[in-house]
Amino acid sequence: MRAKLIDISTHQDDSDTPAKFDFSKPRSYDVNGIIIRTGHGMVKDADYEYYYRDAKAAGYYLGTYHFDDYDVNLEKQVFTMLAAMEGKAFDLPPAWDIEDSSQPFHATQTFALSRAKGFFAIVEPVVRKICVYYMGASMIRWLKPVPGFLRMRRGWPAWYPKRPAGNPFGWMETHKGPDTGGVPWWLWQGSAKGNGFGAAMGADGSADIDCDVSSLPYTEFYEDAAQTIVYPDYRPARIKTSGSFVRVRKTPQFGDNICYSLLNNTRVNVFGESNGFYKVDFLASEWVHGSVLSIGL
Hints:
CATH architecture of the largest domain: Alpha-Beta Barrel
Number of strands: 17
Number of domains: 2
Order of helices and strands: EEEHEHEHEHHEHEEHEEEEEEEE
CATH superfamily of the largest domain: Glycosidases
Shape: globular
Helix content: 10-25%
Structural class: alpha/beta
């Protein structure tokens, strides 16, 4: 059996009713994992603590995600997430939720990539895991060519094609998966607002369902996700330029080798220097010139 999960937040607990999330119900659909929202912006999710307590007691594998409020400082949001995670044990690496819904403006490509880059730079050295980014499948296609640093992370696209009635996971297990334009993905969110399965899953509101990409037995999927990495030595840095963005290059040299851009003040980590350029990702070959970096923060 593959990994089957639901992701939940305070939206799954109707504040107008006394009922709480019933974590026994998802078992009837062989759900084995719960991804809990830590919050949004600098606001901790109102149900986060009891979700964690009860889902842990019910024996689920656990993960967590945070919704990025575009108009709130990224680093303050990330530290809000880390503070909520402190003292708790999760089986899945943390995920950052970047989506245009309920936002004061639409993200540009440079904005979306800068938010993801800043999240990875802060969180991965702390949790020592390859982290996750959540985006709509159409947003991932819009980012193409998707830079190496995202391809090397764990993608969690949202994609909701028409599906037959019945077991909400049955069609996901046999479907070819999200249309991300060939970009690798790790988990797939296959329902919007539960598609009517909220109550069956134990929620007052609606619970979205998620399925993994692999054919691994679910125990091996979670064991792999829980593995820590040896994070290399690095120096924290920040993009500093008189303009609004800088170009990230595939090789440590100027020329026609641009892979994407990062906004001014974006947090990065640097992993070595060559020809006046600094490598800004430990998994992908991506370089920024030292003249537009403030190293050591």
